[in-house]
Design a protein that fits this description.
The protein has 383 residues and is an alpha/beta fold. Helix content is 36%, strand content 15%. It has 14 helices and 13 strands. The protein has a 7-stranded parallel sheet. Helix 7 (226-235) packs across helix 12 (333-346) and helix 11 packs across helix 13 (349-361). The radius of gyration is 21 Å and the shape is globular. 43% of the residues are buried.
Length: 383
């Protein structure tokens, strides 16, 4: 089998659900990083390098996977449909050319991740068309029309042979459009993150910390509840709050940056994370309430479970409530602080084992097997 994957995340530098699934598929995969707009460098100078990245092939992550970047496109495609149509027609021509160069035929599976691909999905011959929805895309801020994004997603789903959703709210929306929709939440690289269950050498950045460490791993983006974290850090001066992940431009990270017991370590290689997690006493999952947070399936949450460490979470994303017997869920600052204390002082071996058992069941190997099962069924129906 051959798969052409039009991703919403770059393959490098940090793996997301797209990479985890594609590297486990029994197929030759042509993976496209998403395009940037021609205006992107004005907002983020780091995007300047991506304007030309499409001209060369990225390093090959494994024998059956080739990674390419898509060329830059016109801005405002999520605000005006006519611009999206121009962009997607241009991208379709480029994708077909790269497919030919890589020996990918017209019987490949076309697997997409972005609503805007509704205007591309029929321009590329394919054996089957798949859409995986991992976010409430209309909930993002920026130069978008939420109504247009939702409409384009519905058109995309309607024109696909199989649709996957990572959260219940996303599934409920999409199954009304396409009955061939399957709920498959995100997961964790259990083999990697379970290493934190054992004592590991303490990273130098944490070596001087004497008291409890409350840790967060993941993108520091706008859906994180920074006022909640600030309050928690102020009320727990005996604890050190450690944040590992890339800071998004629009996120209010400055609300916690100046606190004496907060450390922002930036983005670290995934292979190094188990050593940091092994030093964490509690893992934090602090999402603020909102449409974007409610329907996300947080990778960090499943990675936390694999460590066996206590997890303190807000009630959103909704998905975390399925694990209420194993984690500490708190609604509001005072309850959040109270659950931190409970996690530090009252956690039990039974809860720890439940977290580990949940993580095994939610491994990427298990998730990929479910994707492959549904895809095989879809291809048999089309044969």
């Amino acid at each position: 089998m051959q798969i052409v994957c039009l991703s919403s995340s770059n393959w490098y530098p940090y793996p997301t659900s797209k990479q985890e699934i594609m590297r486990r598929m029994d197929a030759d995969v042509l993976y496209f990083d998403p395009p940037v707009t021609l205006l992107a460098p004005l907002r983020d100078p780091a995007a300047r390098a991506r304007l030309t990245a499409w001209r060369q092939e990225q390093p090959q992550p494994q024998e059956n996977i080739h990674v390419r970047a898509l060329p830059p496109v016109l801005p405002f495609g999520n605000r005006f449909r006519f611009i999206n149509r121009i962009n997607q027609a241009f991208l379709a021509r480029h994708i077909r050319r790269v497919m030919r160069e890589n020996g990918i035929g017209d019987d490949a599976v076309l697997w997409t991740y972005l609503p805007g691909h509704c205007d591309l999905i029929r321009k590329i011959p394919a054996r089957a068309r798949v859409y995986t929805c991992v976010d409430r895309h209309s909930g993002y801020k920026g130069q978008i029309s939420p109504a247009l994004v939702d409409h384009m997603e519905a058109v995309l789903a309607e024109n696909c042979d199989a649709v996957f959703a990572t959260a219940q709210g996303l599934y409920d929306t999409l199954v009304r459009v396409n009955p061939n929709t399957t709920l498959v939440p995100n997961g964790a690289n259990y083999e990697l993150f379970s290493r934190a269950q054992q004592p590991l050498p303490v990273p130098e950045a944490l070596a001087d910390i004497k008291g409890p460490v409350l840790g967060f791993i993941g993108a520091l983006q706008e859906c994180i509840d920074y006022p909640l974290l600030r309050r928690a850090a102020q009320m727990c001066p005996d604890c050190t709050f450690v944040f590992i992940g890339r800071e998004h431009r629009d996120a209010a990270v400055d609300e916690i940056r100046d606190l004496p017991n907060v450390r922002l370590l930036g983005l670290l290689p995934q292979s190094e994370l188990p050593a940091y997690l092994a030093r964490f006493d509690v893992c934090l999952n602090p999402f603020r309430s909102g449409s974007l947070s409610r329907d996300v399936s947080p990778l960090k949450f499943y990675e936390y479970l694999a460590t066996g460490k206590p997890v303190v979470s807000t009630p959103e994303p909704v998905q975390v409530r399925e694990f209420a017997d194993a984690v500490y869920i708190a609604d509001g600052p005072d309850a959040f602080i109270g659950q931190i204390r409970a996690a530090l002082e009252k956690d039990t071996p039974e809860k720890r084992q439940r977290r580990i058992d949940y993580a095994r069941a939610c491994s990427w190997d298990a998730r990929a097997a479910r994707f492959a099962e549904v895809l095989a069924h879809t291809l048999r129906k089309k044969a």
